[in-house]
Amino acid sequence: MKTAYWKNEYIALEHWPKEAYTRVHEAGKNGELHCSSCHQAVIFYLGIHDEPHFIHKDPTIPPCQELPKNSHAAAQAKEEPAEYGGFRLPKSRSISAEEENEKNDWQSPYHIKNLQPFVLSAANHQSSCHPFTQTLKEHGWTLDEEQSLAVTTDARHLLVLAGAGSGKTRVLTSRTAFLLLEKRVNPKSIMLVTFTSKAASEMKERLTRMPGMGPSTLQQLYTGTFHAIFYRILMHYDPDKWHSSKLIKFDGEKEYILKIAASELGIDEREFAFDACIQQIGKWKNDLYLPSDVRPDGDFEHSALELYKKYEQYKETHDKFDFDDMQTGCYTLLKSDPALLSAYQNRFRYFLMDEFQDINRVQYEIMRLLTDKAEHICFVGDDDQAIYSFRGSDSSFLLNLKIDFPDLETVYLAANYRSGHKIVQTANQIIAQNHVRTQKKMRALHDQSPAPVLFYPHDEEMESVMIMTDIMEKIRNGASPSDFAILYRTNVMSRAIFERLAVSSLPFRVDADYDSFYNRRAVKGILAFLKASLNPDDPSMLNDLLPPLYLRKTAVQDAKALSILNDCSLLEALPHIGGLKPFQKKTIEKAVSIIGTLKNIRPDIAIETIEKELGFQNYLKKRGNEGNKMDKGSDEIKDVKVAASKFNSVQAFVDHATHMVAMSKEVKKRSKTEPFAIQLGTIHRSKGLEYKYVYLLGCVEGCMPHDYALEAWREGDRKPIEEERRLLYVAVTRACSELYMSVSAKRRGKTARPSRFINNLKKGAPIAAR
Ligand SMILES: Nc1ncnc2c1ncn2[C@@H]1O[C@H](COP(=O)(O)OP(=O)(O)OP(=O)(O)O)[C@@H](O)[C@H]1O
User: Fold this and answer.
1) What is the pLDDT of residues 533-548, one digit of tens each?
2) Pairing state of beta strands 443-444 and 222-224?
3) Ranges for the UvrD-like helicase ATP-binding domain (predicted)?
4) Are strands 247-248 and 33-35 parallel, antiparallel or unpaired?
5) Is the ipTM reported for this complex over the cut 0.90?
6) Domain enclosing residue 203, as ranges
7) Which residues form the pocket of ligand 1, taking CB atoms under 6 Å from any ligand atom?
C-alpha cells in the first residue's frame, strides 16, 4: 500500500519527500499511522529489498484497496503547509499529486552482475595424506593440500602468502601445533606474534581444541602483539622507567603537547594538520628516524620536524613515553645490550608471525635481531590487506623477505573458505584495480551465496533504518545477532545506526575505542549552547561553553561566584567576569542575549544560529581542528545538524544526546561480555574476523575513499587511494554469506556520489536514475 494517514494527514508515498521517510517510519512504530482505507494501524516498511510501502500492523489483515488520487484526503495534501506531518517540506517543493515531475522514484537494489562464472576446482577438496594432517582431520580439523604443505614443511624460513579467508590463521595455529606435537619443540622457545591480543587468545583457544594439547603447554608459549611483546621485554628490564602511569595513551594528549609547542614556534594553529603531524612523527619513529635523521620535504614536514623535536623534549622532561617509544625503546635496548639480546636469541628459536603485511621498520629490525639464531620462522600475510601504511607499516617487508632470507620457501593459498563465489569475485574485482600488489586471485569453494547488493538510501538516517529492517527480518527467520556486522570507514559514521540499535531490543556491541558521537569536541560545544538555552544554570554545560566564548576554563569558578553574588544564572554571570577584552565582552553579551531564544526554535536551525550568528564557525576555524585531515570540526557540525533534523524541539534533541552518551557507555561496558551481539565496528577493527551478514555503510566518495585520500590523489599521490581500496577489500571479505553496500544519495546534508571503487562493479549494467 502506498498511502496512509499520519494522524489526520494523508500521505501518498509517491509525492512524499524521501528525507521524511524515516520520520514516517518512526510514526508507524509509534502507532501514529493508519490505513487510508480501513483505518487500521499500519507500519511503514523501509527495507533493502522491496520498495517502501505500508503494511497493516496486524499481519492477518490483507492489503486494502488504495483510495483514489482525487479523494478528499489527497486534495488536502495539495495545500502545501509549512509543517506537514511534523515534517517541513522545502518551500519550493510541491506535493501536488498532479505534478508528475515531483515523482519520488525508488531506486531498486542492485545485485552485482557480470562476475566470472563459478568453476568448481577439484584441488580445493583434496586433503593431504600427511600423517599429522590426517590426525587433525580425525579430530574434525581439515587442511587442504596447500595448507597442509604450509603446516608440515621442513623449510627453515617459510612465507605463507595468501588471500583473505584462505585459512592463514588456521595454518598458523596448526603449524604451532605441528611444532609442539610432531617436532616436540619446547613451548618456551616459541614466539607467536599476532596483530591483536584478541587474535592471540583466539589462537590459543583453538589450540586447546587440538588433540594432545594440554593447558600447561599453551601457557608456556610466548604470544602477543609486537607491542605487547616489546613492552614485556622493557618492563622486565626497567619497570620504573616504563611504568604504565607514564604512558601517553591518547592522541588528544599528544595534540595538546603539540599545540603548545606550535604556539611557541609560531605555527598557525588554524591551518596546521595536527592529526597528520601526529601520524608523521609516529611514522618517522617507526622508520627509526631520530629528528636529526629527518630530511624534511616541503613546509608541512619542516613544521612537523620542529614539533617532533619539541615533542621528544617534552617527554624527556616530563618523564613520559608513548606507544611508539615501546618499539624504539626495545630496539635501542636490544642493540645496546648484547648479553640481553643473546639471552632472548637463545631462548626463542621458533617464530610464527601473523599479518606480516602490516609490519613497520622498527618491528622488522627487532624481529631481525631476535631471530638471529632461529631454527624456524614462519611469516604469514596478505599484501592486499595492508591497511596501516598511514602509520608506517609497509608491505614491502613481506614482499622482499627473500632478500634477507634467501632460502625462503613460499606457499600460496588461493582457496577462500569463508565466502561464496560472488563475494569472492566482487573482492577480486575491487582489488584488481590496485596498481601496487602481487597478482593473486582467490577462488571460492561454493556458489551458494547471493550476489552482493548495492542499496540506495536517501541519507544516513534512512540507511540505518533499512539495515535495521533487514537485520530484524533475518533474525525473525532464524539468524542470530552475532551473525551480523555493520562496518564503516570511521567511527563518526556510526551515529545513526548506533541510535537505531540503542532504541531497539537487539543486542549489539562496539569496538573498545568507541566513543559517543555526542562526545566529539565540536559536538559537545554545540550541545553546551543548546543546554544553556534550556537551563542557563546548568553547570554541566559551562566547561564546553567557555572555549567557544574565548573564556578560559578557570572562568567556571568566577561564573559560579558571580551568579551567587549577583543572584543571576551562570549564563548571565559570564559578561560580568573581570578582565574581559572588548571583543570578548561583545561576543559574550551577544551570545547571552541570543542563547535564551534557541530553545524555541527547531534544533537544526538553532545549530545554524550557533554556528553563524554566535561565532562557532569562526571559533572552529581559529581553535578547532580545521587543518586536520581526518576529523574536522566543521564536518562534525554537518553531522550534528543531520542528527538534530529528526527532532522537533531543542529539548528533545538534547535529551536524546544525553541518553545516547549514557547508552554508549553502557554498550561499551556490555561489549566485553556480550558474545551474541551484532557487531558495530570500523573496517580496521574487523580485520581477521568474519560474519555471515555484513553491511557496509557509506560507500560514497568522501567516505570510502575517505576525503583525505581523495585530496592526496588530486595532488598526485595514489598511495592513500590504494590503501582505501584495500580497506574496502578487507570489509568485503569479512562476509561469509551476504554482503550489502550502502550508496546513499546524501551525506552530511549534501548530494553524494557513489564510491569510485564500486562504480566498476556496475559496468555494463543499467544504472538507475538517481
Ligand atoms: N581447510 C579448511 N576447511 C574448512 N574450513 C576452513 C579451512 N581453512 C579455513 N577454513 C575456514 O575459513 C575461514 C577463514 O579462515 P581463516 O580465518 O584462517 O582465514 P584467514 O586467511 O586468516 O582470513 P583473513 O586474512 O581474511 O582474516 C574460517 O572460518 C576457517 O575456519
Assistant:
1) 999 888 888 888 888 8
2) unpaired
3) 141-420
4) unpaired
5) yes
6) 107-153+166-177+197-224
7) 142-144, 147, 162, 164-170, 382, 385, 417-418, 688, 690, 733
